[in-house]
Amino acid sequence: MAWVFLGIAGLFEVVWATSMKYSEGFTRVGPTAVTVAAMAVSFLFLSMSLKALPLGTAYAIWTGIGAAGAFVVGVLFMGEAATAGRIVSIALLVAGIVGLKLSSGH
């Protein structure tokens, strides 16, 4: 279950990062509320995953899911560039996440 919790935590990290962008510096109430709520859920599930997973592995994967997910949201919904360099860089990040998972022993 720890890996499931970590995946959920990572998905909520994407939610809070995205809603933070829409909060316009925490000046819009709705997106700000979503940001704070999603942060709380993300941290809750991260803390639950840390009961069974090593800190370094869990934290790196959590932030990696957030970074890769935010990249995808940015490209698909916010008109951000999907250049070859950016795509290769995210692919390397995802490869690192997979490598951490496979070598974690959990």
Automatic annotation (TrEMBL):
InterPro entries: EmrE-like, Small_drug/metabolite_transptr, Small_multidrug_res
SUPFAM superfamilies: Multidrug resistance efflux transporter EmrE (SSF103481)
Gene3D superfamilies: 1.10.3730.20
Subcellular location: Cell membrane
GO terms for MF: transmembrane transporter activity
Primary location group: membrane
Pfam families referenced in this protein's UniProt entry, alphabetically: Multi_Drug_Res
Transmembrane stretches, start-end: 27-46, 58-78, 84-102
Keywords recorded for this protein, A-Z: Cell membrane, Membrane, Transmembrane, Transmembrane helix, Transport
A cellular component annotation (GO) from this entry: plasma membrane
GO term, biological process aspect, one: xenobiotic detoxification by transmembrane export across the plasma membrane
Topological relation to the membrane, as annotated: Multi-pass membrane protein
Source organism, top-level taxon: Bacteria
Family stated for the protein in its record: Belongs to the drug/metabolite transporter (DMT) superfamily. Small multidrug resistance (SMR) (TC 2.A.7.1) family. Gdx/SugE subfamily.
Protein name: Guanidinium exporter
Organism in which the protein naturally occurs: Neoaquamicrobium microcysteis
